[in-house]
Amino acid sequence: MFLTFEGSDGSGKTTQIHLLAQHLRTAGYTVLTTREPGGTRIGDGIRQLLLDLAHTEMNARAETLLFNAARAQIVAEVIRPALAAGNIVLCDRFADSTLAYQGYGHQQDIAELERLIAYATGGLRPDLTIYLDIPPADGIRRNRGRADGDWNRLDAQELSFYQRVEHGYRQLIAQQPHRWTVIDASRARQEVHHDVVQALQQKLPALAPNR
Ligand code: TYD
Fold first, then answer.
1. pLDDT score, position 158
2. pLDDT (tens digit per residue) in 33-81
3. Which three-class secondary structure state does DSSP give residue 93?
4. Which of 59, 64, 95, 206 has the most CB within a 10 Å radius?
5. Could you say which DSSP state residue 10 is in?
């Protein structure tokens, strides 16, 4: 079972993935958590290239290809083997991030991106995608206030960029409503977690823990 989490920067994906993984492990499932870009040695190297504040000359197409190179690696090296072994995979961002950020945010051609994503993933798609919904301005505020000082090149965008990204996610959700669950992520983390577990039970009853 392949579950992905999407949302603006600062929407709390990392925390929610952690809470859900704990919940599922307690219920007896084997769970693998990972993130994009990264999650492999090759992917972590690409992540450094992408996030480095000094890389101001990064070309938009080069950036798109790097995200998808990291994706091809993690799909082949980590995600497909884990799924084949019957594990649950929780991934912090996946192909929808390329469509939302590079497609809608940076206004690259969506049809071209879809072909590139299909090439990178070999057609692997999530069974369920959780969208953690938070107004972009709040996400930016949360992100900038983060104690870990994890500020990087990709965070240095205007509010209008994040608004296009959010609009992009809404389009993607409208196109495939059965695959997505939208959760209000502006609430306390336990409330959000409760809704994430409920969404999983509704969409994937075969998976439901604590039945
Ligand atoms: P990260 O530090 O993981 O941030 P977040 O907590 O927001 O997930 O950085 C990932 C950044 O990369 C984030 O700004 C979204 C962006 N991104 C893309 O632009 N395209 C992609 O395909 C992916 C996977 C991420």
1. 86
2. 999 999 999 999 999 999 998 999 999 999 999 999 999 999 999 999 9
3. coil
4. 95
5. T
Distance of alpha carbon 43 from alpha carbon 48, whole angstroms: 9
Is it the case that residue 146 has pLDDT exceeding 70? no
User: Is the separation of the CB atoms in 141 and 25 below 8 Å?
Assistant: no
Name the pLDDT band for 96 (thresholds 50, 70, 90): very high
Task: List C-alpha distances in Å: 157 to 67, 117, 177.
Answer: 17, 23, 28
pLDDT at 10 over 50: yes
CB of 6 within 6 A of ligand 1: the answer is no
Read off the DSSP letter of residue 40. S
Element spanning 35, H or E: strand 31-35
Amino acid at 89: V
Cis before 37? omega within 30: yes
Which atom belonging to ligand 1 lies closest to the Cα atom of 106? 19
